[in-house]
Amino acid sequence: MTTELNWILAAQTGDISPDTNTLRVVVNGEAVCLYQLEDGSVHATQDRCTHGNASLADGYIEDGLIECPLHQGCFDIRTGKARTAPCTVDLKTYAVKVEGEAIYVAGDAA
Ligand code: FES
What we know:
By secondary structure, this protein is mostly beta strands. It has one domain: Rieske Iron-sulfur Protein (3-layer Sandwich). It has no helices and ten strands. It has strands spanning 7-12, 22-27, 30-36, 42-46, 60-62, 65-67, 74-76, 93-94, 96-99, 102-106. β9 and β10 form a beta hairpin. The mean pLDDT is 94. FE2/S2 (inorganic) cluster (FES) binds next to loops.
C-alpha cells in the first residue's frame, strides 16, 4: 500500500529570491525554507535552524549547503543533515514537486 502525499501549493518559482535563492513559506502552520539550487532543483527543509532561533532563509547557499546566518553552521539542503559545527541536529526535510511555475510541498515532513 502506498501512502499518498498531501501536496500543498507553497509558492511560485518566481517568488524565490534570485539574490539568496531561498524563500520562507508557511506550510500547515510550519515555517519551511525553499531553496533553488544551481541545477534548478527545488528543495525544502524546516526554516528554523536546529541550533538556535535563526531563519535559514536568511542564510547563504554554497555547494548544496545552507549556512545559518547566526553562527554559520551548515546543513545539506537535499538531506537536511547537519554538516558543520555548531549544528548537530538534522533539519526536517519535505518532499517538493514543481509543476510549471507552481511549487508544492508535502504537508508532512519526510
Ligand atoms: Fe544556526 Fe546557531 S542558530 S548555527
